[in-house]
Design a protein that fits this description.
Elements lengths: L7 H46 L4 H37 L11 H25 L1
Helix pairs in contact: 1-2, 2-3
Length: 131
């Protein structure tokens, strides 16, 4: 059975969409690596300062650890959800019935998670300062 004729314009459009999906995934990977690195850095810097100054404040250590872990968790969520979305996008492009459908925004979900981490860290610092 011969293969159906393909429209070159459509095929090139699919290739452009695939390349755009790849660039988007790479941007999410960079963002996720930054979040994970930032979370790891928070924890390590606070621990180094405490070792050098001989401090043993459990509250500061706990807050730094939880904040660092929260950044790492947001980074892991971002790369996981971006990978899932990338895979879906490639499947949609491969099918010939590609139609626009509204989807949830990974960027909005990450922004909300980062706001939650920021609020937690802010409140933790304010409470530890007042106590």
């Amino acid at each position: 059975m011969p293969e159906p004729l393909r429209n070159l314009t459509n095929e090139l459009a699919k290739e452009r969409n695939r390349a755009a999906a790849e660039r988007t995934l790479l941007a999410w990977i960079r963002t996720s690596l930054s979040l994970i690195g930032f979370g790891f850095g928070i924890d390590q810097i606070v621990m180094a300062i405490q070792r050098n100054q001989g401090l043993d404040s459990l509250e500061t250590t706990f807050l730094a650890r939880v904040t660092g872990l929260a950044f790492i968790a947001v980074g892991l969520y971002a790369v996981f959800s971006a990978s899932v979305e990338h895979r879906r996008e490639l499947r949609r492009i491969q099918r010939d019935d590609y139609l626009y459908t509204s989807r949830r925004s990974n960027a909005l979900a990450v922004a909300i998670a980062l706001m939650a981490v920021g609020i937690f860290a802010f409140l933790g610092i304010v409470i530890s300062t007042l106590i």
